[in-house]
Design brief:
Bound molecules: adenosine-5'-triphosphate
Distance between the termini: 34 Å
Helix content: 25-40%
Structural class: alpha+beta
Number of helices: 10
Number of strands: 24
Largest sheet: 7 strands, mixed
Radius of gyration: 26 Å
């Protein structure tokens, strides 16, 4: 078992700097000093995140017969979150330091820095004076409509703190409109908001973030078994996207540390450079959620089983993953610095993001060897056009071709295609109409006929 406290801040700094330099992730509102805990995804980050979400949706909704998708609203009726226990109950313990005026999450002090002496944790310096912990409300609210100006408490609505609640309150509508039978799931990808006390570790703990959640409704007898099955399915998913099993840790959350209604919870954790931290929770939530909404709304949410003639409240297994955390894990896992030695014995560092091709933001780089050669440029543009309908393509004609390869390595492009003099047939008829395809990880090159390029790439990048 890896040590939770082993961290690599230098690696993390390099990753954060690459993310900004190459346009993956920027601080939100940076022009005005930044908004703490909020992040903007740049061109490459947006592609990466989209690839992850599309893959999750395909595997979770489209390729399964038993899971349906939905897309709920972010603004949520206060009564929904009162019934769920979030209003007045969704908080983290916070302490203040009377000396430096810092505010810290009390159950995370070991991982935080003292406001006066950053080498210590809060409370670790002789001058620290911490208060007793008190509950800090994590909910973000707003006011809706004309009543808002009158300060009417009825105008208060919340920015959802998790996507799950909109699934629970629509469970009956989905059931009735789709004529599904237990067990079945409802999946959703969407934004959630929490007023975190100490947002940190880049995008890991943000105040605005995206979740990918499944609420899987089942018979009470099946809850425990399905929790284990979902854990396995989720571990397989991470492996498929390039986060290997050996970098994941499963925490079987012990009694007393789980939510009071949960009979079983697994945290899936990843070895980030800042320590082993949660990526996803797989929780058996029993019938708690449907129970509180049945009571709160005073409307029946029971399921009638035609075969057994039983009427009961379904139980729920919830695999709940953080989209931003998974994007960050993908980047951390892909980041590599490789030392290369040239013919003269000179060493050089190659920075590579070793994304799986399915996740890579750009699938293929297209380079005419010489930008002044009209025929090479014409063919390169033609190839670019034909591939663009199918995948993200980046055209680059500036600088030495070796430098262009390196620029694509740094953003994780798995393949680069170069159109050269051989393509034009200038070195013999047999290579005419072929291009060089260079592979990112091995740097191996091969020649392929232009008309085979699209099927060859599609087989590898989808
Ligand atoms: P943590 O203990 O890290 O605060 P949590 O147990 O409160 O997380 P859940 O409520 O189970 O998290 O949310 C499910 C998933 O949503 C988490 O596993 C995580 O991936 C993501 N998530 C939760 N809070 C945040 C956040 N502030 N920023 C980014 N992702 C988050």
């Amino acid at each position: 078992m890896a040590n939770k406290d082993v961290t690599d801040p230098v690696r993390m700094e390099k990753i954060v700097s690459l993310c900004k330099r190459r346009g993956f992730i920027f601080q939100a509102s940076e022009l005005y000093g930044g908004l703490n805990g909020c992040w903007d995804y740049g061109p490459l980050g947006a592609e990466l995140k989209r690839n992850l979400k599309d893959y999750w949706w395909r595997k979770t909704v489209q390729e399964r017969d038993d899971v349906l998708g939905m897309d709920g609203s972010i603004l949520t009726h206060q009564d929904v979150l009162k019934a769920s226990g979030h209003v007045g109950g969704f908080s983290d313990p916070m302490v203040d330091c009377k000396t430096c005026k810092g505010r810290y999450r009390a159950d995370n002090l070991d991982t935080l820095k003292c406001g006066q002496k950053p080498s210590c944790k809060p409370g670790g310096h002789s001058a620290c004076e911490l208060t007793e912990p008190r509950a800090f409300d994590l909910m973000l609210s707003t006011k809706l409509g004309a009543l808002a100006t009158d300060n009417d408490p009825k105008a208060v609505a919340y920015l959802r703190p998790e996507t799950a609640q909109s699934i629970f309150v629509q469970y009956k509508n989905v059931l009735d409109s789709n004529r599904v039978k237990l067990p079945f799931g409802i999946a959703q990808i969407g934004k959630s908001f929490r007023n975190e006390i100490n947002p940190r570790n880049f995008t890991f703990r943000s105040r605005e973030f995206e979740q990918m959640e499944i609420e899987y409704f089942c018979h009470p007898d099946d809850g425990m078994r399905l929790t284990d099955e979902w854990l396995e399915a989720r571990l397989a998913f991470y492996d498929e996207i390039g986060i290997p099993r050996e970098k994941l840790h499963i925490l079987d959350v012990p009694d007393g540390e789980r939510a009071f209604y949960s009979k079983k919870t697994y945290d899936i954790e990843y070895e980030f450079p800042f320590g082993i931290q949660e990526l996803e929770g797989v929780a058996y939530r029993t019938d708690y959620d449907l129970g509180v909404h049945q009571k709160g709304a005073n409307k029946p949410l029971e399921y009638f089983d035609e075969e057994t003639k039983q009427k009961f409240l379904p139980h729920v297994v919830e695999p709940s993953a953080g989209c931003d955390r998974t994007v960050l894990a993908l980047i951390c896992e892909a980041f590599d610095e490789e030392t290369l030695t040239d013919d003269k014995g000179k060493e050089d560092i190659r920075t590579v993001l070793r994304f799986k091709p399915t996740m890579a933001p750009i699938k293929v780089g297209i380079f005419p060897l010489l930008k002044k050669n009209e025929e090479q440029v014409r063919i390169a543009r033609e190839i670019q056009k034909s591939l663009q309908k199918w995948m993200t393509v980046f055209y680059d004609d500036s600088g030495a071709v070796g430098r262009r390869y390196r620029r694509q390595d740094e953003v994780g492009t798995p393949y680069c295609v170069t159109i050269d003099f051989d393509t034009l047939g200038e070195n013999g008829e047999e290579l005419k109409g072929t291009v060089t395809v260079r592979e990112r990880d091995s740097m191996a090159q091969q020649r392929l006929p232009i008309d085979q390029l699209l099927p060859w790439l599609l087989e590898r990048v989808r």
